[in-house]
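chain below, 125 aa
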Amino acid sequence: MGRTKTEDVAAELACPIAPVVDIVFSRWTTPILWTLNEYGRQRFVELQRRITTITPKVLTQRLRQMERDGLVVRTYHPEVPPRVEYEISELGRSLAPLFATLADWSAENLEKVERARHAYDAGGG
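prediction:
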């Protein structure tokens, strides 16, 4: 059975951060934003070197989506050969306090999560 439009709105009202989570925490967005925030303006190849597990195709897709969402600024330099650079936008930079809070939470709680997982797995879950 499909969901109705009313149920979709109700679900969004139940969790108003869901749209933000979809934008900011999709698979590769966070590492890309973190890298651009930490290292500043980067060329595509530099990003790829720093985020070693991402494929060029996926990096291209994520950068385009992040540019569309206003989180990243793409600058094209018409040189020979052409040069393209990416940097975090002011909107993207505004997420820094959120990332700092999550980093603090991770430092304080990741070990607890691991212990809980081990206990759950040992108990047959």
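DSSP finds seven helices and three strands in the chain. Helices lie at 5-14, 18-24, 29-39, 44-50, 56-68, 90-93, 96-122.
thats it, cya
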